[in-house]
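User: quick one, fold this
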Amino acid sequence: MNELVAKQQVTGKAILQLYSNMKKDSTSRKSTEYFKRRTEALNEHWANAKQTHAEIIKIKKSSNEYWTSEYYKQIEKSYRDCYRYIQNSTTCINESSEDEDTRVKYQMQHIQTIDRYEILSEKLVNQCK
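Assistant:
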């Protein structure tokens, strides 16, 4: 039982560390690929936590601190907070990317309009000669 609880503590700390590090990382590092890798790592830790919890349930000792402190619920909350952070951050990246795409499209349309205007102006000048 103690080995499983220790394993669960390591997993819980890994989730917290992942979350903490993401919040500290600079925004320049945070790309879609960055969050994809973090999501994969988070889901792997969460799968380990669920598996270890299932093993602990089989040998349940209600007096153990694992149960009295509701450690699994704490890990689950950390997982959900971290997952929500990733989802919100990914949404922001996608929105800013869409904003950038919209801005570029607008600029291209503007340039094309200017080009057409210049071509028309040139034609008019040539006709007046």
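User: anything notable?
Assistant: The chain is about 85% helix and 0% strand.
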